[in-house]
Amino acid sequence: MPTVRRNVWIKGGAEVLRVGSLAAAVFWIFRFLLTANLAGGTDARWYGCTMIDAVTQARAGHWPVLIGQTEWEWNGAVHPFRTAPYLLNLGIVIDSVTGRSLSPLAVEHLVLFAVVLQAGLLTYILLAHLEPRRRWLAWAAALSWVLAPVAAAYVINVEMYMTVMTLAWLPLVFYGNARVIRRDDGGGWAALAAGLALVWMSHASVAAWTSVITAIIQGLRLLFRDFTWVAWRRALGGALLFAVLAAYYFYSIYELAPGKADTSAPTQAALLAIILAVIAAFRLLAGGTRHWWWPGLAALGALWFVNRLYFNWAAGVLVWSGGIRGWQRWGFRKIGPTRSPELAILGLALAATLAIQLPLAHAGSAPIYGEATLRMLRLLYPSIVRPISPAGTAFTDLQLGFALWAAATAGCGMALWRGGWEARLFALALLLMTPLLVPIPWLSTCLAFAIPDWLNGISSVIWFRVLPAFSFLAVFTAFLAFAPKTDGEIRRRAAAATVLIAGGLLWEVSEVAKLREHGRRSIATPAETQAFYRTDSTPDYYSYDNLPHPDYVVNGVMDYHLESRLLSAADLSLIPEPLLAAPHAEAFTLTSRPNPLGPDWLMLSPGFRLEAGEREIWKFDFFDKDYTGSFLARGPLGFNRTYFLPAGGDSPTSFGVGPNRSKTLAFWNSLAVPQDVALMLLTPEARRGFGDFAKVRVQRYRPEDLQIQTLALMPYRARIRTGAAVFLETPRVYVPGYRAKVDGRTVGVEVSPQHLAMIRLEPGAHEVELSFGASRRLMLAGAVSALAWVGLAACGGWRFLKGKAG
After folding, report:
1. 613 and 692 part of one domain
2. Are 698 and 583 contained in the same domain?
3. 764 in helix, strand or coil?
4. Is residue 708 a contact partner of residue 564, using CB atoms and an 8 Å limit?
5. In a domain, 292, yes or no
6. In the sheet where 629-634 sits, what is the strand order?
7. Does 629 share its domain with 739?
8. Does 583 share its domain with 698?
């Protein structure tokens, strides 16, 4: 065989080995997901409900799926249908590709498996594209991420599936950053813009911090190395490309709550002033002219009046940069090198320390958010830098892992010592993010209190949101630091990297095996899966997230047949349901007795039996007791209810013990066989004896006997008879896009006082239909984004074919 052909075969075989081993590692860890049964706990169950709803709608011809409309999400939920649409839409695509032959749960699990597989393979492909001669190092770096606890724990331990979706595209973001630093070409900006847009559509919280990291990397590049009009113009072009690619997503979010964003003049002034101050200070450090003092001082003047904390930050940075410039001006140029971003980062750290110690440090900040962030860091540390728990079930098993921490540390050291620009900027971004994952005295405190309110608001728990991007940032930093272009140091660095990665991979295999076993144990049986997704036991407490919700919403199971209401056309007061106002047919007292489950458990008697299709309304009269705990109803065939006490919801009139709270719950049996239900109370009060639980009055009902008969959900259809002009308040949360018909005639849709979609009705018998579709403005934003994606794909295809032809 000729030598050239033999080399091609060797190279091709090595490539197959690398790609195949990455795929095999993903399969080994996540094989448990290839099932049609429920895999996981509470959050996994809820994600299953959303996927069932989305796939059911798509199969019925409803697309795009923008809200929940079936029995599993009957109240018009927008989360994650619009807040993180990539998960459900990828599921719809996979469902179509597989010929709709899989169950929605199987589709969801295939989505998760495919995303992790893509993350591992894409990381290898993009690293190899950056350094084609370092393919084995790229393979080792990608494999170290696949075997790290971070991906497995997000899927298995905390079941944060929207966060998992970001893993598919985060490698593209960091590849784009590296390529822009290296070449500053259209391909780099296209990769960066496309990656960021896809991460935003996967999960806004992770995307926000990924954008912050990108701003740090590209900001330092533009301020210290490429402070030219050409470079800034290309950066503006990349930002505009990102804007059109993500136009549909951002307008969709804006449409949900247009008044929610803080666009006040002080907020905008503070943002512009801090940006201007940082640019001025960094340009002084980079060797800029003394004229940069004037915009810096102007920014300080504005910040003094609008935000004292950021004034302290800006003042610290300017004082540091001025001191360094003065040091250089007096002849000590060798001690204070210019055009070095490391000096800027050091100045930022000193400014943070200064800010937190000044008397006005917390003025204008959000101490509640800052304290919450610090409490989380102290709670997690040092467990997050220790081995995985033996059973793989601990909350702190969601961590970077020893191997990636070692790679990040060694990569930062190598990058700052002998690395090129891309490695150095990645390392600096990594160092800046580290205090948000590991408590570092002063720095973590300063960063926690300086995070803007809007970023805190969408982050919830910052540690969760930074970790995914941080894991890929660590991989790319280590790779760029240990894969130099020059041949002089290749052997030395390659040997160090090989020892580091080999030891890390062996450790990670043993660690991730614990999580793998946890995932395997979490798979439910077919009978349990069917029971978990019974519509009479599907909780509704996530559905109103991201929107105003009714005052009476319950964190638990609700019967949608009872959630449509009539309001007086004169004053929008509630017209009671006649069936609920009728005398109850049965009354008794629930009493407590010890439960063999443990000292905190009480059995409540009597239990009750629900016949096939039977429905009951229970009205509770609570006593003057401490009801702190959980009220549970359990049946042997999967009937499963839990209501927290003394408040079964965050809303002021949701089910609970207080005088203004609702006292009614609905129980029904969706099976074709009778079901016996046991009642329990979980409360510390059980140790002292609880006595009688509550007096209960029971009223049986049938949906066809209600004053509002709900006939269908997709679209919502109802039959009503009224003797006066009224408004029908539907159970759907109002967002733009609803269309209504009354007796076949198109009518307007209004917003009720409870933030629900309502329709005006005249006296008489009516049949109402409420359907949902994208608003015209959302369709326009969608068209803009679709054209941008098609144009980007066409340009990429053209360049690929041109390169092949060349």
Report:
1. yes
2. yes
3. strand
4. yes
5. yes
6. 640-645, 629-634, 675-682, 601-610, 586-594, 692-700, 615-622, 664-668
7. no
8. yes
Cα separation, 615 vs 613, in Å, equals: 7
Q: In what order do the strands lie in the sheet with 716-722?
A: 708-713, 716-722, 764-772, 738-742, 745-747
pLDDT band at residue 288 using 50, 70 and 90 as cut-offs: low
pLDDT tens, residue by residue, 261-283: 555 667 777 778 888 888 887 78
Determine the pLDDT at residue 280. 83
Q: What span, in angstroms and rounded, lies between the C-alpha atoms of 162 and 502? A: 31
Q: Is the bond preceding residue 441 a cis peptide, omega within 30 degrees?
A: no
Which residue has tokens 């960066």?
192
Residue with tokens 């290749």: 490
CATH code, 763: 2.60.120
pLDDT tens column, 44-77: 989 999 999 999 999 999 889 999 999 989 989 8
Domain final residue pick, 672, 702, 732: 702
Residue type, 244: V
Determine the Cα–Cα distance for residues 662 and 619; give it in Å rounded to an integer.
Answer: 9
- Within 8 A by CB and 6+ apart from 777, the residues are 251, 255, 736
Report the run of H or E that residue 601 belongs to, with start and end: strand 601-610
3-state secondary structure of 335: coil
Question: Token match 């490539």: residue?
Answer: 15
**608 shares its domain with 570:** no
Q: Which candidate, 182, 31, 37, places its Cα nearest to that of 102?
A: 37
Residue 302 structural domain:
262-338
What total of structural domains would you count in the chain?
3
- Contact, 720 vs 708, CB < 8 A? yes
Residue 593 pLDDT > 90? no
- 792 domain residue, yes or no: no
Provide, rounded to the nearest whole percent, the portion of the chain with pLDDT above 70.
87
Tell me, yes or no, whether 616 and 730 share the same domain.
no
- Backbone phi, then psi, for 758, in 5-degree steps? -135, 155
Report the predicted TM-score, pTM, of the whole model to 2 decimal places.
0.91
